[in-house]
Amino acid sequence: MQTTVRLQSEDFDVAAESAALSRGRTDIGALVTFTGICRGAESGDPISALTLEHYPGMAEAEIMRHVDQAKARWPLLGVTVIHRHGRIEPGQNIVLVVTASSHREAAFAAAEFLMDYLKTQAPFWKQVEGKIGTIWIDAKETDDAAASRWDKPAGREAAE
Amino acid sequence: MNKMKLVYFAWVRERVGKAEEEIAPPASVTTIAELMRWLGERGEEYAHAFDNPKVIRAAIDKSHVRPDTAIAGAREIAFFPPMTGG
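YS: structure for the whole thing
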């Protein structure tokens, strides 16, 4: 299976990454892309930029660990995860998840699973630059809840 | 106790005032929770960083661990706030 995990400070090209995953293949029937983009406001306050700090080595390993879990759980034909670090301005890309499968259910579910775990388990921390200076964003309980729904036994999602 | 490397991220790093350091805690410090308590007694910066250990996450050799995990044999221990990537 084609797997790409990259951490980088520079931007990525969503279309090029999607094309790279499906090029020359006829077994892929569904390709889901999720792009996380920097918002211009955080909790109602305008921001001028986000800075993402990460733990080199562990960040790649954690993403790869969850890609492996996704592969074990759904019949995937390809996965690409790209996460940026450093300073990112509103409107710019932060993260890309592309999942490919023969049918849409697996591709949708795996993309959502990967994003939920990236938010709560991959060692990245967001700091926002705004009018009142720079502040670290607090983790959201809703993100933990979103990740924990995947803790139930595998196979249930087929019945849902 | 052997020397180990500590690394700090985000506001834990800012409060401690450094990104990494080598430490040699006493043999009585055996778990992540005990190490946080010991670090909290090393000075004002550390007390500030570790005053609410419940909100601090830890990793040993780049894998997530719980507070009751033993630190024996660890080469690198990381402390950081709950993650906010994605």
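YS: worth flagging: Residues 70 and 110 of chain A are 6 Å apart (CA to CA).
IM: good catch. Also The helical segments of chain A are 14-22, 58-73, 104-121, 141-148.
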